[in-house]
Amino acid sequence: MMTMQTEQTARLEAIVQLLHKAALQTWSAADDTGPDSPQSSLGLGIYLAHGRAAELLPDGHRIDGDRLAGLGLEPAPTTLRMLEVAEQLTRPRSWPATTGEPSGHDPAEIAVSQVVTDLLDLIREARALDL
Amino acid sequence: MTSEPPTSQSPSAGASANARTSGRAGDPASKAAAGPRAFAPADDALFDPVVDHSGDARTVGDLLVDADLLARQLLLDLSGRDAAGLLRGWPAVVEIADRMWEALPGQHPAVLGDIRHMTRLAALTGSMGKTMATASWPGPGPVDRRVDEVARTLAAATELVELYGAEVNIEHGAVYRDAAAARTRVMHCVYVTAHAVGIALHEHGLELASRTAATGRDYVSERHPEPFPGYRWLQRIRTCELTAGHYVRHGRFARGIAGATVQPVENLHRLSQALVSFDIQTHRTLTAAATPANMVLACRTQGMIAGASMAIARAADHGGLLPSPGAERLAAAADRAGHAWSHLGSRWSDLTTAGDRIDPKLMAAAAAVRDACREVTHDRAGLASTAVIAGRPALHEAVPAVLQALEAGPDTAHVVSATAHQPGLRGPARPLSIRASNDAEAHQSRSATGPARRRPSDGQPADAAWVTAADILADRTVPLPAPAAVELRAAATRLLDCASNASAVAAVIHSDREAYAQQPRSRPPRDDEMTVGIVLNRPRGRAGSVPRPPGEAPMQARATTWERTNLATRPVK
Questions:
Q1: Which of B19, B135, B176, B435 is most buried when burial is the number of CB atoms within 10 A of its CB?
Q2: Which ipTM was obtained for this model?
Q3: Residues 361..420 of B with a Cβ closer than 8 Å to A: which?
Q4: Which of A5, A113, A116 to mutate to test the interface with B (most CBs of B within 10 A)?
Q5: Residues B37-85: pLDDT tens digits?
Q6: CA-CA distance, B325 to B555, in Å (whole number)?
Q7: Per the confidence metrics, is the pTM higher than 0.80?
């Protein structure tokens, strides 16, 4: 059975991969427009959020394989969609009582607070740009 | 919600009202009178006489999760119009969060340091509430429904903890951790709400500043020393966000960015300070760890700075801070430099994987630059119009700041270029395979139409496999294939050219602008100050040292064209 810690790490890995992919995709679109494209700034914001999320992974941790499978993403998701899915992954979840944890909360889970506010700011920004 | 909104007369009125209806009722008789009973009178003894079982069935954990989601929804949909209502509702959120913390069991001496965060937050917010009662803005009025809902949900959780907290056996390790998690989740909720209130206040300020600028007036005066109404509130809410942030951002990243995420906002020198700090940090980071992930961040941030420089140059032209020939030339040079930085950043990103770490200090410096640039060049819908940027007070300081940043560009370009020429670069197999194939193909098509140049990939067919299928399947790290390595170095060389060009253009404009700024302002500027002075009056050697890209009109011709325009519009003396 997957423990709370490994489930959280798996979610964090998916967030990191999503943000990395979203940043590169946004920059790729910005490169076609020009350096003053709003997407250039958005791409930088996403890359910074990716860096912050990656910092939360354990030291020396390597992400093996594609963690995006099973997230229900379309073959070519938009930047906004990837940000929204990443934000959903940061939401607290109820943990089955069989694990022995009282209510499924772990203090380590909350370390994503900065990533949460980053993601919500980026989603607002991406929506305004109609991406 | 359909009820009337609570007012600022009683910040916690909404939360208290909720407590009466959904948590504790106290008097069973009054409960019975309030609505239909869900069980027979004979079954009274089976139920807790205090808690209303027919009401809210959520647990403390459920309520805290809901409060978190409500705070997130608040942050997703914000505008300056929400600022007053959010500010009015803020004290209730902190008041109830403080009560929750007090009620939670397990206040071990080891966590007293953590408890002080909430105590300080409550003190800060308490003084805000007192000021709010007499301040002219936001004044009395409705509380934003969403922030009120956050307070109500936290209040419901608090009521439950106050009822049953004493019964919890905190000696049990898992229970202790659970209480600690609940405390942190409350603070997380406060942090997200503070962030939302701060953003709304900031938006409110920008909207008012734009409106004031459109009338041609300056908001700042002896009567209004702050940049916009609500400025002091913004400073205070940022302090609250910082206090909550210190608690929730524990861990390695928090140590790395200590004090960096709360830059002084609405500081006219913010962009200048951020650009200088980023320049210094880039050199430090790339000297210590020139990893592909750090290179990507450095290049892409430089690309964004170039983009912001273009917008600032156009706005400076519009606002009369820079004469047209200089501004146009600066924007064009920044455009080329921005493309070159972005292209190199794109190539470095081929060498990164999702899990790569980025230097936290470089991230903090880049984030500060991004925020500061957006403050000047963006509005809610993206890049602001040239007229809007021209009306912003920060533009005056932004012009010399970006000129200095462009002047310093070649230094960073040299560091980045040197790394691109280092042997032993490696990256993930799949993106490098795609990049190498594309580069080889592009090189072959160029060779077919242009003069033949020998490349390391010569002799290999375009469809050659630069990376083995086994490496791709196993997602291995492989050496940078020859065609991609050649193009990476070529991109670095192009960047050096473009950054040097932008630096030279910026240097010329910078020194002329300073000379112009020293002139007395009691008369309209003469033509030779406003037009020719920018480029034509430079010593030939200096201006001539600027490499002119192919296809660009000579400097003399551009200035003469502008001069003709200016002669037609110059004021009659």
A1: B435
A2: 0.90
A3: 363, 366-367, 370, 373-374, 378, 380-383
A4: A113
A5: 555 666 665 555 555 555 677 888 889 989 999 999 999 988 899 999 9
A6: 9
A7: no
